[in-house]
Design a protein that fits this description.
The chain is of the alpha+beta class and about 300 residues long. It is about 20% helix and about 35% strand. The strands form four sheets. Strands 1, 2, 3, 4, 7, 10, 11, 12, 13 and 14 form a ten-stranded mixed sheet that branches. The chain starts with 12 loop residues before the first strand and ends in an 11-residue tail after the last strand.
Length: about 300
């Protein structure tokens, strides 16, 4: 039975949105919700208005897997502009410091090695991190720049794509929680100057890359020309797409029924993440312990599909 008051269609799956620059993640999500007329959705990993690129959006039951997207490795292309620091650490901010020094290519290459691996990184003042219950960006906008503590992050690799006297273009392969704006700020300081991000694009989040993505403008074009929504729905990826690199446990109908009623089922020995599937559709995500599957999230089928309740 659908929940009273819930409007929209009960879709489940993933939309890999290519978010344009100039719009935040939440407004982009609102436009997607309106286009698809979907009951429930959420995005996995905020992108700044300046940034473009991959914004995975979960529909329906896929929202239960958002944590996997948040933890997934990410790839960014960016440009670091030397000579000016801004209060937001990107080109949308106000210039707060200037420096005439411009580092040589060799100095940049040497500095980059000190920003790979497990490092401590201080988030930008304009970030969504909470300080004493308030968002850092709200404090910064009110003139109360928060003192944010450094946090451990992992940067797997940085490629130097292009070098100019005033800027460098990089490709960054990193783990969750990494702020590319902080990397730009700190890299410039390490090179004896100041700097900020002038271009930022997220190229991949986990298994989702630019080859899976569709631009927001294209979606809106389809929505206006095909109001029956069938063409829009063709751009949704199955919920299970995200689970391709996690071992799967095939279920019988009886095993699937037990899982959905909170009962234990046998599983391979060892302790590792696993997902359980009936007829190719996810039923639960969990881990195995001592030969038993322990579900952590139950995935319900779409209305009328494999209904075993």
């Amino acid at each position: 039975m659908s929940r009273r008051g819930r409007k929209g269609r009960p879709l489940s799956g993933w939309l890999v949105l290519d978010k344009p620059s100039g719009i935040g993640s939440t407004p982009a999500l609102t436009r997607v919700r309106r286009l698809f007329n979907v009951q429930k959705l959420g995005h996995a990993g905020t992108l700044d208005p300046l940034a473009s690129g991959i914004l995975p959006i979960a529909f329906g039951e896929a929202t239960k897997l958002i944590h996997l997207m948040m933890d997934a490795p990410k790839t960014y292309a960016c440009r670091v502009q030397f000579g000016q620091a801004t209060d937001t650490d990107d080109a949308d901010g106000t210039v707060i410091a200037e420096h005439a020094h411009r580092p040589a290519r060799e100095a940049v290459e040497a500095a980059l090695t000190r920003f790979t691996g497990d490092i401590l990184q201080t988030p930008p003042a304009y970030s969504a991190i909470k300080k004493e219950g308030k968002r850092a960006y709200n404090l910064a906008r009110a003139g109360q720049a928060p003192d944010l503590a450094p946090r451990p992050v992992t940067i797997h690799h940085i490629e130097l794509i292009d070098f100019c006297p005033d800027s460098v273009s990089l490709r960054v392969f990193c783990g969750k929680g990494t702020y590319i704006r902080s990397l730009a700020r700190d890299l410039a300081i390490e090179c004896g100057t100041v700097g900020h991000i002038s271009y930022l694009r997220r190229e991949a989040v986990g298994l989702f890359s630019q080859s899976h993505a569709i631009k927001l403008e294209k979606l809106e074009e389809i929505g206006h020309s095909a109001p029956d929504l069938v063409e829009l729905d063709r751009h949704l990826l199955p919920l299970e797409t995200l689970l391709d690199d996690i071992p799967a446990l095939p279920l019988t109908e009886e095993m699937a029924r037990k899982l959905r009623h909170g009962q234990a089922i046998p599983a391979p020995k060892g302790e590792f993440p696993i997902w359980a599937a009936y007829q190719g559709q996810a039923v639960a995500l969990g881990i195995t312990r001592e030969g038993v599957f322990e579900p952590q999230r139950i995935i319900h089928p779409p209305p009328g599909a494999n209904d075993m309740e």
